[in-house]
């Protein structure tokens, strides 16, 4: 989990926008300074419109980096995200980033990365896959959703899927899918789990990994006011198996945390 | 008892708020919206700004309220952070050394549960260089007074300000809450007890509800409303208070542009603070400070001191 240092506030325009699933769009924006400094797991904080409403910026994981351009994958859940999903090419945005820490891919203590995600939590996995592939580390995606329409696997390789309703892939959740794949993966070497998704899914996953002594990093979510550590709004409460509780500002000390801290 | 890491730049918008609180720009950044300056310094040239008000300091560290602590509302936000802060010891050891290097006045916002808490912070910080003033946040529940908020009572305000006046030679700025029947009565009590200035407004009590879940958005149920939504309230309160007291008034509440800042000067504020909008545009303080400086530097521009309070009614 690396800390980033160079943050830029970039005025940019949407250069491409394409649908990626039900209510989900991928937006591309040239942001050279952010693209150059970005690490998988980092996020950006976007001022969606110049108006007073929505007022605050909205945080999004960096979905992909292609040269000078960054992509974000946005699920329409409210005012800010609907403006983004319905935006047109050429629209102007203010993008602050890269923010937060990143996934620890360079720790050298694993042979295979298991990228576990649920719903819009798949957003950071493309950039993570790319970074792992460039470092010649083997990886396998385990992607979950309620049904087929929720699986956001476009652009990913080496994917197994799970759906709650069984409409595609394994019938069940991603933690059960992980259980199914684990024996085969651990036989091939040491594994490390990198995960992003709804907090309840991540908690279940953290417990699963702790019980099996599997290294695991989670990208959490919270409501954010500033993304840079000045509003204190993004506090999340963590507690580990020993009952130790801690409160962290997720925008500075996260969004990626060691799974050990989220098991209780 | 000096505070000078600030290089005094001769600006036509420089303003003295009394007792050594000389600002090279009337623009300050508001408490709770800049942490202790470190994060923002990477995104904003703090030396362009007249002053930075720290997050509230209490004698002991506080983690604050449980999440969810903030929620966006129409043209604003509500927060119930709960005065989370590093506490006095860590503030002095970890935060002050950086604040001494930023080239702007440092104003320490203080929050306590009792008069004794405020005294403890002031006594300790008086021995620390590089602090220009204290801003007293009296809007927190007072344990002694059965959960009464000190800042809603003229008597409690008078008591705490006069106690601190005897303790320190530094500038005392009293921060006023708008959640009272008569804000000018509180301002007058602060002035009579020896305050050097008053700052207003603190956040307006507010609430946000999700009808689908039937739950409040904030765990704390209610919170403080801030941002552009409260600007009209803030302007009216600054107008009222600036006519009631002789000490300088520092105005804030929803300032999001140069024009907003000028409106506060017109209704009687000698200086202004920017809060919520730092979250949206981290360099907004620098931009507004430069714009005000340019306005008053232009040929034929009014004098800053004459512009303050020159609203035509
Ligand atoms: C570090 C981080 C990375 C994120 N990455 C992505 C991403 O890659 N793609 C993506 O689509 N979304 C991502 N999110 C969530 C996204 O920020 C929110 O969906 C968005 O801010 C909602 O804005 P809105 O105006 O559309 O919703 P609002 O109208 O403000 O609210 C609608 C609903 O969204 C919920 N919500 C509001 N803010 C957040 C928030 N910060 N996190 C979670 N839920 C929220 C509200 O509680 C409400 O239920 C991320 C959040 C964080 C903290
Ligand atoms: C997240 C947040 C935290 C705040 N914390 C404090 C605080 O610790 N002490 C204080 O006196 N005021 C605090 N305030 C109030 C602001 O300093 C300011 O008075 C108020 O937000 C109105 O200005 P604005 O509309 O520009 O934000 C806080 C405001 C916000 C939004
Ligand atoms: S989002 Fe403001 S402190 Fe983390």
TrEMBL record, chain A:
Cofactor or coenzyme needed: [2Fe-2S] cluster; FAD
Residues in FAD-binding FR-type domain copies: 1-105
CDD domains assigned to the protein according to its UniProt record, in alphabetical order: DHOD_e_trans
Cofactor binding, per record: Binds 1 [2Fe-2S] cluster per subunit.
Keyword Chloroplast appears in the UniProt entry: no
UniProt xrefs under InterPro entries: Cyt_c3_hydrogenase_gsu, Dihydroorotate_DH_ele_sf, Dihydroorotate_DH_Fe-S-bd, FAD-bd_FR_type, FNR_nucleotide-bd, PyrK_electron_transfer, Riboflavin_synthase-like_b-brl
Listed PROSITE patterns: FAD_FR
Record: residues binding [2Fe-2S] cluster: 226, 231, 234, 251
Keyword Ribosomal protein applies: no
Coiled coil: none
One Gene Ontology molecular-function label: oxidoreductase activity
Source organism, top-level taxon: Bacteria
A GO biological process held by the record: pyrimidine nucleotide biosynthetic process
Family: Belongs to the PyrK family.
Protein name, per record: Dihydroorotate dehydrogenase electron transfer subunit
Provenance organism: Chlorobaculum thiosulfatiphilum (Chlorobium limicola f.sp. thiosulfatophilum)
